[in-house]
Amino acid sequence: MTILVTGGAGFIGSNFVLDWLAQSEEAVINLDLLTYAGNLDNLTKLKNDPRHVFVQGDIGDKELVTRLFAEHRPRAVVNFAAESHVDRSIHGPEDFIRTNLLGTFTLLEAARGFAATTASESSEFRFLHVSTDEVYGSLAPEAPAFSETNRYEPNSPYSASKAGSDHLVRAYFHTYGLPVLTTNCSNNYGPFQFPEKLIPLVIHNALNGKPLPIYGDGRQVRDWLYVTDHCTAIRRVLEQGRLGEVYNIGGWNERPNIEIVQTICSILDALRPRNDGQSYADLITFVKDRPGHDRRYAIDASKIERDLGWRPSETFETGIRKTIEWYLENQSWVTKVVDGSYRTWVEKQYA
Ligand code: NAD
Ligand code: TYD
């Protein structure tokens, strides 16, 4: 048996592939374009593992994805591949539409073609689409957390492109009977996260004595989930989720950004005190706000907890400490990302 994972060289995808192969004999076909966010260093543990087949390519390449379905006959697809950074989507939305919307469309079409030719196997086949809580828009301070029935109100090109892909997935279930599942998760953090996102960026800047940029007043609220908890939730939805259903995933960990940054600073103060004896918090710098910055996200995870019995293993306190320890122990991973040398393998392919 085989599963097809897309975007499996990125942050969450690589954690998922590592976690999957640590628990299962089932092979993984890992289709990833290796954009700036894809990093094969995340997968070095699997270098000589025959159960991991890496394919560099685009989910929007119809010929390629059709061939991968025909060759490997996966029993499931887990679609992580995406452009994922809100700030980048503000400066250049085109890649977000191309990958998140059109790429998902191409993958759905190929999956539909494959499912139609495998009538007997197709009852087992699953297309799991990994999405975000950002599709629901911004919550007022006292509003209840997002449930699966909240209206879609995306505010950034990133969240709009993900919302569009969620709608396509839904439509393929209702129109063509494709056996789909959708998950909408809150902000993730943990090992292998690209240091453009808040938590790894702050850890990296702090260790290098650089300013820790806080957008606007820093009172925006995000709901944080440790990445391996997201991976176990996806696995649970894949195995037990009801076809056509949406599952919100989150760990009930709402925090304002400023508090996240202060927490990172105080853990670093204890684990790696600065030479001058000052706190890392002295590096906090308030900067111009992100345009259209959503004020608050929060996930109501009651459905996945009640229907599928999933619970996160990490609290924010245990998860953030583990994350900081991982970045301290893996400075060479960060250095290669920051100096660009993690791209060497990709550039050789294109030379
Ligand atoms: P990431 O940016 O770290 O990784 C994305 C991966 O997709 C990269 O390896 C990249 O090379 C690959 N990719 C991009 N375009 C591709 C294409 N056209 N074809 C094939 N591969 C392509 O992203 P992430 O943070 O790991 O997020 C993974 C998924 O989870 C995304 O769909 C994202 O919307 C969703 N999600 C992320 C978070 C979060 O906090 N990071 C939260 C909820 C949901
Ligand atoms: P980010 O990690 O980019 O995730 P998202 O935009 O998908 O939630 O940002 C998390 C929060 O942190 C968000 O409210 C924006 C804020 N932020 C900063 O204040 N400073 C930064 O340098 C970054 C990258 C984000």
The stretches of 5 or more residues where confidence is low (pLDDT under 50) are none
Q: Strand order across the biggest sheet?
A: 3-2-1-4-5-6-10
CATH class: Alpha Beta
- Structure classification: alpha/beta
The secondary-structure element order is EHEEHEHHEHEEHEEHEEHEHHHH
The CATH topology label is Rossmann fold
Question: What layout of secondary structure does this protein have?
Answer:
Elements: E1 2-6, H1 11-23, E2 27-32, E3 52-56, H2 62-72, E4 76-79, H3 86-91, H4 94-117, E5 126-132, H5 157-176, E6 180-185, E7 187-189, H6 198-207, E8 212-215, E9 221-226, H7 227-240, E10 246-249, E11 254-256, H8 257-271, E12 284-287, H9 302-308, H10 316-329, H11 331-339, H12 344-350
Parallel strand pairs: 1-2, 1-4, 2-3, 4-5, 5-6, 6-10, 7-9, 8-12
Antiparallel strand pairs: 9-11
Helix pairs in contact: 1-7, 2-4, 4-5, 6-8, 8-10
The protein binds nicotinamide-adenine-dinucleotide and thymidine-5'-diphosphate (TYD).
